[in-house]
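Researcher: Re-running this chain for the archive, since the previous output was lost when a drive failed. Same request as before.
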Amino acid sequence: MKRGIFNTILFYFVIALPLWMFLAWFLWPKTKYVIAIIDKTVLFKTGQEHASLTWVLWNNKFSKTSSDLYRVGRDYFGFFPNKNKKYDLKGLERASDEDLEKLSRNSDMVYITDTYGIYSKEWYLAKNITERQRLLYGGLSAQDMLFLKKMKQKKKLIVTEFNTFATPTPEPIAKDFEQTFNVKWTGWVGKYFDSFDT
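Model: Regenerated structure tokens:
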């Protein structure tokens, strides 16, 4: 009889465990951590290049304000796709020096996920075309670089991906990036696998 009661309680506990876990997550306090996410290659509202970062921030309850968790489709600087092949540009290119100073003061971190950008045929024809085409938006800008320098001066965390200062970043800005961060772009791109076991 006691074993039957124990098994019943255990059964309901296991069934209710996901609910308890969700309630614990829901009631867990948010941690404010302001990240300036820059993504210039957003073809879809899913924000493929920065979706994993936003997922980690959301699930670990890091917030951009004391109450708002990060959302993949809105909390970044860059290219914002709209309906009917329309788009908005909300990058740092139009930011004043004062705006960049304030952003660097308020941000705990900058994460540049992708600067490759959006090209005309890729956007309007929805195809990844290898032939040369017109750049709609992309590349590291002078204002992006100024922001990175301000973050570096304040000793804030800076994370960039491999293509941050590759094409289509203008050469003078790429050279400035190399000098500022003491790196050298060789043009090589590779992946490392420590095991091929499946």
